Every structure is written in C-alpha cells, then in structure tokens.
Amino acid sequence: xxxxxxxxxxxxxxxxxxxxxxxxxxxxxxxxxxxxxxxxxxxxxxxxxxxxxxxxxxxxxxxxxxxxxxxxxxxxxxxxxxxxxxxxxxxxxxxxxxxxxxxxxxxxxxxxxxxxxxxxxxxxxxxxxxxxxxxxxxxxxxxxxxxxxxxxxxxxxxxxxxxxxxxxxxxxxxxxxxxxxxxxxxxxxxxxxxxxxxxxxxxxxxxxxxxxxxxxxxxxxxxxxxxxxxxxxxxxxxxxxxxxxxxxxxxxxxxxxxxxxxxxxxxxxxxxxxxxxxxxxxxxxxxxxxxxxxxxxxxxxxxxxxxxxxxxxxxxxxxxxxxxxxxxxxxxxxxxxxxxxxxxxxxxxxxxxxxxxxxxxxxxxx
Amino acid sequence: xxxxxxxxxxxxxxxxxxxxxxxxxxxxxxxxxxxxxxxxxxxxxxxxxxxxxxxxxxxxxxxxxxxxxxxxxxxxxxxxxxxxxxxxxxxxxxxxxxxxxxxxxxxxxxxxxxxxxxxxxxxxxxxxxxxxxxxxxxxxxxxxxxxxxxxxxxxxxxxxxxxxxxxxxxxxxxxxxxxxxxxxxxxxxxxx
Amino acid sequence: xxxxxxxxxxxxxxxxxxxxxxxxxxxxxxxxxxxxxxxxxxxxxxxxxxxxxxxxxxxxxxxxxxxxxxxxxxxxxxxxxxxxxxxxxxxxxxxxxxxxxxxxxxxxxxxxxxxxxxxxxxxxxxxxxxxxxxxxxxxxxxxxxxxxxxxxxxxxxxxxxxxxxxxxxxxxxxxxxxxxxxxxxxxxxxxxxxxxxxxxxxxxxxxxxxxxxxxxxxxxxxxxxxxxxxxxxxxxxxxxxxxxxxxxxxxxxxxxxxxxxxxxxxxxxxxxxxxxxxxxxxxxxxxxxxxxxxxxxxxxxxxxxxxxxxxxxxxxxxxxxxxxxxxxxxxxxxxxxxxxxxxxxxxxxxxxxxxxxxxxxxxxxxxxxxxxxxxxxxxxxxxxxxxxxxxxxxxxxxxxxxxxxxxxxxxxxxxxxxxxxxxxxxxxxxxxxxxxxxxxxxxxxxxxxxxxxxxxxxxxxxxxxxxxxxxxxxxxxxxxxxxxxxxxxxxxxxxxxxxxxxxxxxxxxxxxxxxxxxxxxxxxxxxxxxxxxxxxxxxxxxxxxxxxxxxxxxxxxxxxxxxxxxxxxxxxxxxxxxxxxxxxxxxxxxxxxxxxxxxxxxxxxxxxxxxxxxxxxxxxxx
Lengths: 366, 192, 622
Prior knowledge:
Shape of chain C: elongated
Low-confidence stretches of chain C: 1-9, 13-23, 576-583
Number of strands of chain A: 18
Structural class of chain A: alpha+beta
Structural class of chain C: mainly alpha
Number of helices of chain A: 7
Helix content of chain C: 55-70%
Shape of chain A: globular
Distance between the termini of chain A: 43 Å
Number of helices of chain C: 26
Oligomer: heterotrimer
Mean pLDDT of chain C: 85
Mean pLDDT of chain A: 85
Number of strands of chain C: 6
Low-confidence stretches of chain A: none
Strand content of chain C: under 5%
Distance between the termini of chain C: 85 Å
Radius of gyration of chain C: 30 Å
Radius of gyration of chain A: 27 Å
C-alpha cells in the first residue's frame, strides 16, 4: 500500500507537470490582465483566476484555480517524495518549502478570508461590515431577518411568499446594474414608495463592480388593499419597503450583504492632507475609537498603517462625502492565512540565497 | 520523506498558532500618531517699530506699548464694515484699559473725512475716543498700512501680542470685537 | 473662463511700458535668481526647476529660443510684453490655424497673436473639455494642449504686473493737481495708495476735461484689479501668518488681495520690485544685489519650510544635467566597446571603454543620490525614476561581472549598451514635465519604497542584463562558436534575478496586505511581476529537467527582455489598477517595435542555429 502510494507520489512529482502547467498559467495571467480593461478586475478574476474551468466558445479550458492546484500537487509530491535533504540541495528544498507555505497560505485565505468594508460618517458608530460584491434581497419580520435571496439568484416571474401570511411577491424585473429615470406622471397609478418616483431599468455592468447598483421591482399581492401594488427597491436608495400583516411589520430591502462585527467602531475624526497648493492627497487618516463591551480605547488608521483586532484588520481604503458629513471608508478583512506570506517570503529568500552561496562555494572548490 | 511531512505539518501548525495568538482579543497598542499633522508654530515674527502720529498730533513709537496687546485697525471713513466695527473696538478698549491699546489707523485722504466720521458716531462711542488707550492715527499716504503691513483692502485688523510679536490678522469685519468671547480669547492667547 | 480670457487679452496691451532695451542675451547673472524658492506642484522648488518646467511645456526642451529657461522666466516676469510678442508657439495643424484665424503660411505664433483666437473659440474649447478625454480627436487634443500652455504663459506673464510700470502712465496734470510725488515709473501698487484721491478728483472733474488718457488709465487700474482673482499660479510668497499654516504659499496678487500680507511679505515683494527695476534697466550690479537680497529674504521666512541645502542642490541638479553627460559617455563607451569586440587584440579599446564607463556610472549614481537628497525618499517611485534605477543596477552589475571575467570586452560592451538604451528611454520620459514629483498617499511610505520597489526594480535590472548576456551567447552560437561556457555564466544571474524578482513580488504582496488588506489582488502590476517570476521559474526548471536544451534555454532567457518590458511598461497601457503611473501614449508604439525586434532577432538566431546543427548532422552522416 505504502509502496503504491510512493509510486503514485513519484509520478505526481514529475517535472513535466510543472513544465506544461507554467506556460498555461502565464497565458491565463496575460489574458486575465488584459481582460481587466473591459471586464473590470472582479469579473476578470472570477473568470480566469479563481475559476476551475472556463469556456472558450464550446471549448472547456482549465482555469487558474485548477492550474494552480496541479502545480501545488506537483510541488507537494516533489517535496514529500523526492526531496532528500543534503547540503548541496538544501537551498533548493528550502525554496520549494517556502513556495509550499505560500500555497498553503493561499488555500487558507481562499477558504476562510472574509472581505468587506464599512462607511462611517464622522461621529457615527458601526458594528456591521458590508460585502463588496454580494448583494441580496432581505426580508425582516419585526426587524428579525427571516429570509434572504441573492440578487443574482432571483429571476423574473419568481414568486416569494412571506412565511405564514397570504402575502406574496411577484418579481417583475431584476437588474444587476440599474439606471434610474423619473416615473412618468401617467404611469404612477398603483405604484408605491420609490417606484412612484423612479423607474428602474437594467443597463450593462460597469467594469468597476463597486459602481454597479442592483435593484428589483415586484408586485405585492394578498396584502391589505392599500398596500397591494407595484414596488421597487435598490441598494442605491436607503428607503426600505414596509408591509404590515396583522400586527407584524415586514421590512423588505435590497442591500449589500451585511455581517456583524463582534465589536463597534466609532469614527471620531477623518483627515485628508494635501500636498500644499494642489488637490493631490498626501495622506488619509481616521481617528477612531474601538468599543468592545465595557472597554473602549482610541486608535488611528492611516494608509499603510492598519489596525488589527480580534482577527479583523481595518485598512484606510477611501473616503466619501455623505449627507451625514465626511465619512471614512475602511476595508475590513478577516483572514487566518495572513501570516503565511511573511514566513514564506523569508524562507524563499533564505533558500535562494543559500542555494546561490552553495553553488558559488562549490564552483570554486571544483 | 517522513522528515518533510513532519516539517510541513510543524511549520503550518506553528504559523496558525502564531496567527491565533496574534489575533487574540488584546487591546491593540495605540499608535503614536500626533492628532494633527499641522503643528502650531511658536515662532511669531516681531512687529517693526513704527513712529506714529495721532490726529491730536501726539507722536509715539509702537514699542512704547510693550506689555499690552495692540489692536491695529486699518480703516477708512468710506468703508462700510469699518463703521460697524469701530464702536465695537472702542467698547473693547474701554473694558481693557490696562492690557490693550487700540490704534485706529485711518487711510482717508483728508482729515476732514475723519472728523466727519467721528461726528456721525453715537455719543457713547465719541466719549470713548478720549480714553488714554485709544489713538486715531492718520496715514494718508498709506505708509503704514500698505508699505509696512501690505494692506490694500479695508478693514483689516492686526493683533500684536504683548511681546510685540505679530499674532493674527483679522480680515474684513469677521469678528464681533465687543463680544466677551473675543475679549477672553484675546487676553488668554496674546497677553503674557 | 470668458472673463479671464478677456482680461488676459487686455492685460497684454496694458501692462509694461513697452519692451525694455534688453539685448538678445541678457548680461545679468542668473545664478542667485535661479535659486529663489517657489511652491509648485505641491513642493517648494527653486525657480530654475519651475523655469525648466515651463520651458518644457512651451517648447518640449529645457531652453526657449536658444536661451536658458531661467532667462526666459526672468523676461516673462519682468518684461512680459516682450515675451508675449515672441513667437513661442509652433502650430503646424492647418485646422487649428484656420479655427483661430491665424495666417496659414506661418508656423510660429506669439501669445498676443494667439489669445484673440482662443478667446473667440472658448465655447468650442469648453465643449471639448466637457467631454471624456478619451474621445478627443488628434486636432482637439492639440487644441487643448495649445489652450493650456497659452493659458499658463498668460498667467505667468501677468503674475507680477502690479509691481511693473504701467503701460498708461498717470496723466501729468492729475499728478500736479493732486500733489502726488513723481517716481521713475508708477506701478499699480504705487498708485493704489492714491486711489481715493484720484477717484474723488476724477469724479469732480467736468466731463469735457476727462481725457482719453485718463479714461484708459482708470480702465487699466480696474482691469488689473479684476485680473488677479484667477488661480494662484506663481506661488512665491511663503506663508507669514500662523493662520495660514497649511504651508500653502500664495501668488503675490492673491496674497495682497486676500489680506494675507504682512511686514515680511511687503519687504519681500519690494525686493521683487527691485529685481524688476534692475532687470528692466539691465543693471548688472543692482540685479546682483536685488537677487541676493531676495534670496536671503525668502529663506528668512519663519514658516516657509524652505531648506536652503535642498534648494541649492536642486538648482545644481538641474543646471549640471549630469544624466545628459552620462548619456554621452555611455554613447562613447558603446562605440569603443563595439570596436573592442571587433578588434580583441587592441587592448587600448578595452581601456577606453572602461574609461568612459566608470565616470558615466559615477555621474549617473551622483545624479541619483542628488535626487534622493532633494526629495528625501528612495530613488524609485515613478516610472522615470525606475528607469534611472534599473539603468544603474544594470550597468553596475555588468561592470562587476566584467571584473570576474577573463574576456572583459563583452560585459563592458553590455554595460555600455544598456546604459545608452536606458538613458535614451529616461530622456524620453523626462519630456513629460518635472521629474521631481511628490507622491500620492498610497505611495507615500519610505519603508516600502525602499524595500519592495527597490528590490523589484533591481530584479528588473538583473533580468535585462541576463537577457542581454543570452543575446550575446545566441549571436555567437549563430556564428558557430562554442558557447557552453557562456551559457553556464547566464545561469547565475538568472538565479539572482529569480531571487530578486520573487522576493520583490512577495514583498509587494506584503505591502498590499499592509495597505489594502489583501496579499494578492490580481492587479496588473502584480500580475506583471508574477509573469517575470513564472517565466524565470519555467526557464530554470526546464533547464534542470532537460526540457530546454542549450539553444532553447538561451532563447527563453533572451525573451525575458520582452517579458520585463511588458510587465514594466505594458501595464501602464492598461491604465487600470492601483499601480499605473499614468498613460504614456508613445510607450505603446515603442513597446510594439521593441517586442517585434526582439522576436525577429531571437527567431533568426534560433533558425540559423537549427540549420547549422542540421547541416553539421548531415555532414557527419556523409
């Protein structure tokens, strides 16, 4: 059994795998980079880098994830079955080991990392993170979340029934990126809230995924007479739709997926420094306060100086002008694999240096 | 082979352990960043000594007033905001007879204009013109206002600290000089 | 915009009492004048740098009509009428000429000729500016460039107009009547003090006594008064008041108008007036005294943050132009190196090559050090700087390589060639404007600039050198020489390149992890760096596993040049992502040519080698 495993291992460690995988990876890299111009970074990444298989016309082609996995298996097999330590080979083995660590870190990151952001106006506090990309249609009953649907899963004509009520929602229109136009006067009948003022229509996706504004329109049926009708909800407008059934209040809203943070961040002050006499930013800085249970303490976040706490890391990402005043935008990341690249880079550098030194010494000796 | 597997598992486990420790809920150390990147500058330029002649033909040097805050107001009888400011400053001068000097530098072309301006003041203000710490100075050729202090628009008010350093320039009629806040700020910041 | 253009147009006719009698080449010593500080593009710099920047914008070179940029600046400031009448703008595009109503047969135009047309077409210009600049046609782009440079020059020539003699003097009868003391030449600021007197007098004057001279005089004063309210352009006045502590400098006119003046700036502006008087009289002695006094006064401002050391250093950096001389020396070294390769027995040629190379590297390194001291940051953060740094790494490594080689001609030649190529490239990039730039917030971190960027650009340098070695080896092999020794010598630099690029790339990831929260984001610049690493990994493993034989290995290493060029410059063409330094249109073309040439070279060499080995195989058979 072990022998057989060993045999398979040796097979998997063949250098041919690397020799043919690498050029393909390079092709993917070039194509994926050039494609960013039209598709935007997010979609190009989805299509070429984090996919297992993608289709080129009728042809299925291995994606970045598959190619990297093959290389990883190849390297793993090489490291486990074919790397016998000796002084002369130690540099190379160490380098391989470093790369392996980098891969393992990447696996941890790919499987566990959570990315999001929070927009906090000055003086406000927040304890939820919003997702960059995931958008959903949320249904709250008395402020308790009872159902959620990803926007990309919703289709025209779909029926959603509010649990334990006669009320149902009939989806009329779903747009990943909506354009907004004022509703004509003669079409206002039967429309409620936002839909009365604005008509949503789908438009092509923006390469910058953050600029896409999702929205849906639907008919409400089976509710009280004055609440039946046509509704619209979009992440661009913060107004929620309220429908009351008997004593209960149902809140319906399209928004980016939100995740709770186990503590609260309060923005005290946001500062922008410019290079004097220009509009070119020299530095961004947020003075914040971390509120965790009873304790609270001040902290600073600026470009290249993140704040790490309870596994979350907060980065100065951007800023915005909101109705509530100047707001900071912090990127929030939770990633168990963040330490691996640091260690891997040291191991790889040591390995390559060692290899060079040994080679140099050897060639002199000869 | 076993060595390699062992090594791999050990280092991965070690890294995860260190990550776990680093992520433990400990209070992050507060980074030592100054609250404001713009530091207050302590070095103020010294005001130049000037020979001043008042409309009452008294002459004195600016440095004679060392130890008191000097409020230098550049004004003209034809300037509308000046008309509002002038009584306010007189009121302020009355409240601080020992710690403040009010120098009203008029850039009017002729002294008649100044007299006409004074005649239009209310009685209370006109009485205050006789205070020992109020001086009206005539600067028809703008030797003081423009040549020394580069003032071409009126009103402008200079605050000279009790140590004779130039502290602040108040442009236009943007302050209520008779207010208690202004007086308190003046005394706190510029009087030593 | 309408108002500003209109005013700018009139100003040219009003300001300046005619051109002064300056000779073609000014006898005045510009040394001290060129060191006077101003704030421009977010940084305090000497007038020398500003003058060169303006000259670059106007003419594309660092001189204007054969005169040094600083001479041009002095004239534009102190004798604006003459500058406005110089035919500084070259327009070849007939469409633009007809649009602006310019004579078709001429090529060079002055500001005074240009402004009326620009003013007339300002609606067209505004319409173009309102559109996305990607949709501009060639002519529209040229028109906008012309409009922007003309506006800059207009702002420059009127920046000191209120301390220059007025075009329309105060009528004598008014002066006599009002008892205004006579002066050599009245300036706006001089007469401002008698504003009230004059206006009272004029108002009281009976209608028939108001002469045209007087009317024009009054109009001129009001025009100057209004024209000052544009963007502060010529920021020479350091902040004086604690209130104004954003360290923002102001242009003299805005300073006075906004009431930010004070005794210090009044005295400083007086010295500028002295300079103007001395310049207009072309008085060498007075000019010397005035410039010296102004320079000292500028340094004496308490809150200005001027470092005289850096000011002097930057002026020297601009004037010495070390990079140009190193370019020339590299050129000489290349010629000598080529000769040394062709005549290996003539040792003198080798010494000549080394003799030219060593001072060239010295000058280049000195220039880089000066940049580090001026900007107080590591020498690699813009595309231009990265070219300079890669150049140094490349040449220096080749020189070190030469030390350990028996055959020194080849590495010396390599050093010289890479020096020439990169100097040429940097010269091209320098046309973009002032190369001493401040950085945006993300890049504003000395630690990561010093580690990641330095390591990765050093990696680029070594890659280029390795690839050039492979080129040499390929060429020799194509001529039928045995290159197995040389191939072995390519191995070590290839490994060092791999070390530097891979560590540099991972460090980049760590920086990204620190600033944006993700180690890897598939950003174009990151992908470019990764591409180089993958290519090197592939080549190294291919060689070890035997998939790549000698020729295959050499070809792959030679193609490394193309990969580096794509990763380094090609990324800028995509203009997406956080790393793009800016779109440079010429680069696309240059990159295409470079890649084609490389491909052809490598292909031809490979084909010749294949054919030779085939023929020799046939020969052995026979």
